[in-house]
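The methods section describes the discrete structure representation at length, but only in general terms. The central task, working out the structure tokens from the amino acid sequence alone, is never made concrete. Nothing conveys this as quickly as seeing an actual entry. For illustration, here is how one protein appears when written out as sequence plus structure tokens:
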Amino acid sequence: MKIREKIFNIPELVFSEELQKMTPEQWNRYEEILQVFIFTFPTKEMKLKSAMNSRNKNAISNQLMEIIEMLREIQAHDLAEECLKRINSFEEIKPESIESYVSYFLSSVTALSLDIQMALHYVEPISKMQNVEPISNQIDETPQEKRTFKSILAVDDDVYCIHLFKAALKDVPCKIIAANSGKEALEMLNKIKPQLFVLDIDMPEMNGIELAKRLRKQGQNAPIIFLTGNATMEYVKECLQVECSDFIVKPINPQNVASRIKKYL
């Protein structure tokens, strides 16, 4: 799939019919705008979090407006307008509610930034493309109790996060196996062969990227999804070097988790 198609498939980006017919020169300019967005957002996020710590509503609104303008430039109009409506009601909202909304908003923008980076920079390894099995359009009529569900190895040192992850997939037909460390996950691989890995990045002793490198060296070629809240370009490029397929943003949004996981089952 070409970069333009990948970008058009990101649901937060809304393109008019005219924009879908951008000339090569216009598209190059738009790609430059996307690059500025993914490079600048982490700094804007830090400033917004600083304003949140001071609980200064004006400072919070000003920082949000800067992010809103960035979202408009990249065609994420719905996300921008939703945030603008919230800002207009800040005077009537308690600080705790503002903090909750801003956390949700930052999570959404972080996910958007990661999706854009994946669209711009992710290249499907040739080895994977050659081994791809065609997806069947036929409905599996096997009774649920007799189906062999695909297994997911979820690795996170935060037990509560594992609990949220399992809860988010309660209606998704899959088998979730949990490990609380990279070492435990590697030991499990002597007995199991997961079809998908979901790895938290920030873990003690062996972080998710280090674990992913070990998995690839062992010949594990199942898709890897990273759990993270970091959208910096350097960070994402490091993840792409271990052939990660996707990201799930913390704090976990159940609907987002389910939709992303389903793509790999």
